[in-house]
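[INFO] parsing input record for 5-methyltetrahydropteroyltriglutamate--homocysteine S-methyltransferase
[DEBUG] input buffer:
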Amino acid sequence: MTTIMKSIQTHIPGFPRIGAARELKFALEKHWRGESSEAELEAAGAALRARHWAQQRDAGLDLVSVGDFAFYDQVANHIQLLGCEPARFGFHAEQGQLARYFAMARGVSHAEHEHHAGCTHQHSGEHDSEHGAQALEMTKWFDTNYHYLVPEFSPETEFSLACERLFADVAEAQALGHAVKAVLIGPLTFLWLGKERSAGFDRLSLLDKLLPVYGAVLDRLKQQGVGWVQVDEPILGLDLPPAWRNAFENSYWQLNQVGVPLLLATYFSPLEENVSLACRLPVAGLHVDGVRAAHELTSVADWLPVHKVLSVGIVDGRNIWRTDLDLALAQLAPIAAKRGGKLWLSTSCSLLHTPFSLENETALDAEVKSWLAFAGEKLGELALLRTALLRAGAAGEGPAQVQALDTAGDGAAFDAAWATSRAACASRR
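[DEBUG] output buffer:
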């Protein structure tokens, strides 16, 4: 692959973890019924991760996303990674991390609590004689239908690098030969998503405690040879209080000192008044939602320094429809030209929010099915858009190089795929 071709790269913010045949759901239910061990559940998770990374690689993505897999919820993964499991659960060292993880998600019965904590006295509220310890609250992940487990913060909250799962997943992917982009929820979004357990307490005051732990996570990833770390800060699309907005520059100045390239990811909404803030943060790249913030693409391309990577989420990560590739290409071509042909293509957000694949949808009407693109199909759309940009010369390809690309990449197959997509979009209108 030429250097010019490498200047347009593809990746995704995240991939569905459920599996093509809902394998994760069935593996979890089997484990919760006591019919499988933790080791068997972990093996099922590893098999799914390997399959999903291979699917991303086989679709032509330059980087596979690692850290987006969770047995229950990615925010709960971060609660364990950052060492801030709520004290009210009364966890003890002999309890395994997976057992504690599910306790936060599903709650702990009074009998279980007495067994683990030696508890014989009465409790009140969320930790009482009737309930043991109630599960963490669940609430909507921004404006999606996905619900996450809400972190709980108090003046006593401490953070530490307390879980190896992310680093083990990275090692798994590397052992399989993948180019890894690790995925993290950013520190400010993590705090924003939580709730205060004490009246009058401001969870933003925990940021100074939290940042060194994020730095330690990034340093571990750097030591593992991870080339990029995607740090999700979707709260940049919200109307933030001044204190939260003002915390971004110093936070990312600190994290940037680790020396691993950071891709700051925003999604679900336009940046609006935060465009200039996001573009000037000391990170190596910026991912923006090119679907919900299509009107901002030119401004972002102008504001973002040319030495930084711009990742455009041009394929909708939240809907079930094929992308209008002609419209997407018309939006991308001038942006690629502004960036000197250096552009990353992506979905607008994680594909967690879409069904897995059309392959198993055998009962759908053929015409309706032709209108659809689920997670697997959206990977293919990114590959088509990348090839189209290169063919159009938006990355600086000359006619000879474009002709060579057509020959090497089967131009007839590309033309047929593009025509099929165009016809399907026209049929749906």
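[INFO] The two ends are 38 Å apart (CA to CA).
[INFO] shutting down worker
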